[in-house]
Design brief:
This protein has about 400 residues and is α/β, with parallel strands linked by helices. It is built from 13 helices and 14 strands. It has helices at about 1-10, 90-100, 125-130, 140-155, 175-180, 185, 215-220, 235-245, 295-305, 325-335, 350-360, 385-390, 395-405; strands spanning about 85, 105-110, 135, 160, 195-200, 225-230, 250-255, 260-265, 280, 285-290, 310-315, 320, 340-345, 370-375. The strands form 3 sheets. Strands 3-2-4-5-7-6-12 form a 7-stranded mixed beta sheet, with helices on both faces.
Length: about 400
């Protein structure tokens, strides 16, 4: 398979739709590629741990008659009509298909990405349209096909490598760290690595510890890699297209519980920046920084906070590496208080890195220590009740803001 792909790079024509029978099928009863319909349900219980009694220099002026308004709904990324409605996984597919149509050197590889359509149907129908050589089913060997994708990128292709589950990409950590992130540097700039590594991750619905990984904390320290996290169908498509066009290796994090999220997106083509955050809600009292699934927990908490008289500013950071310190910094200079909400682990997570960056660049603008709400440093339990207890819930976000602005 590797020989077939790399041989095609040196030719004067793009990858053809050569058919060969390499499609694998899921083992009956294995459950690996089966999918339960993910409904988005938020349950709130638990209380915020102590330690947030913070003295502050500036008094917060509370609105006495504040009510939840339209801007509190998650519509910041939603364009006005006309357009077409898509689920998030369909938006990813549309962005991928548009890029495959535009650039004949774009290809896809991974487990069951071909005629099965991917474990979450992001690549459904692409094998029939573009052939088995551009949509390549691989064996269950993440280190092998990730390394093959990196080699293909070195020689001119723009591969998208799908991990059936982000946790499985730990098997390819050597290829991602020592090859993907460093080859441009170690080759003295002779090679570019325009590869996209993507797949589902995060805490789902009783998927167990090994299938509930949040690998952004693992990959953030690798030099030469960009990381983005989508949270809406609109930014999923825009970030997918931007990642494919980038000459840098990009890891695109998709949350397993957001694939069935529906949104209206524009009919015309658009591409988002890989290095910009999104202002979801403007406010004056506190800056809440979040990403991926936690965006929706934050927005639920924001409605409660507004009704209590607070005016939170919510930013979906989207770019996990590098951080958009311009947007974040302007918000900190305005509100002087920061709450970070993430699903990543507390120790060594994205929140820890973001806290360090804000303290380094904007310490003089802070009136209180940064509060970081993260998942507990425990393997994710299988039991649904215990699973919810390990992840930040909206009630905790409300309590943290109330303590911080007191």
């Amino acid at each position: 398979m590797a020989a077939a792909i790399l041989h095609g790079v040196g030719a004067t024509t793009p990858l053809s739709s050569v058919k060969y029978n390499n499609s694998r099928r899921s083992l009956p009863g294995s459950g690996i590629t089966e999918r339960k319909r993910a409904s988005f349900v938020i349950q709130c219980y638990g209380s915020l741990s102590s330690g947030l009694n913070i003295g502050i220099n500036r008094a917060v002026k509370l609105s006495t008659n504040a009510v939840a308004t339209k801007q509190d709904s998650v519509t910041a990324s939603t364009p006005s009509k006309p357009g077409h409605e898509l689920l998030l996984f369909e938006a990813l597919r549309e962005g991928l298909e548009e890029e495959m149509e535009r650039d004949p050197w774009v290809c896809v590889m991974g487990e069951d990405v071909g005629h099965y359509g991917g474990s979450y149907k992001v690549t459904k129908g692409l094998a029939d349209k573009y052939g088995d050589l551009r949509v390549l089913d691989t064996p269950i060997a993440e280190n092998s096909f990730t390394g093959m994708g990196i080699g293909a990128a070195m020689t001119g292709l723009r591969p998208i490598v799908e991990g059936m589950n982000m946790g499985f990409l730990l098997l390819a950590f050597n290829q991602i760290s020592n090859n993907c992130g460093m080859l441009h540097y170690t080759s003295g700039g002779q090679f570019k690595i325009p590869i996209v590594i993507r797949g589902p991750g995060g805490v789902g619905r009783q998927l167990g510890a090994e299938h509930s990984q949040r690998l952004e904390s693992y990959f953030q320290s690798i030099p030469g890699i960009q990381m983005v996290a989508c949270s809406t169908p609109y930014n999923a498509k825009g970030l997918m297209k931007a990642a494919i066009r980038s000459d840098n290796p990009v890891i695109l994090f998709e949350h397993v519980l957001l694939y069935n999220l529906k949104e209206r997106i524009p009919d015309e083509e658009y591409v988002l920046s890989l290095e910009e955050s999104e202002m979801v809600r403007t406010g004056d009292h506190v800056t809440i920084l979040t990403y991926s699934r936690m965006r929706y927990h934050v927005m639920q908490a924001a409605k409660t906070l507004v009704n209590k008289g607070y005016d939170p500013e919510v930013i979906d950071i989207r770019s996990l590496k590098p951080f958009d310190l311009h947007t974040i910094g302007n918000s900190v200079k305005k509100t002087h208080r920061v709450v970070i909400v993430e699903e990543c682990m507390r120790t060594g997570g994205i929140g820890a890195s973001l806290t360090a960056s804000i303290n380094e660049h904007f310490h003089d603008y802070l009136d209180a220590p940064i509060v970081c709400l993260s998942s507990q440093d425990v393997p994710t339990p299988y039991a649904g009740t215990l699973e919810d207890w390990t992840v930040v819930q909206p009630a905790q976000i409300v309590a943290a803001v109330e303590q911080l602005c007191r």
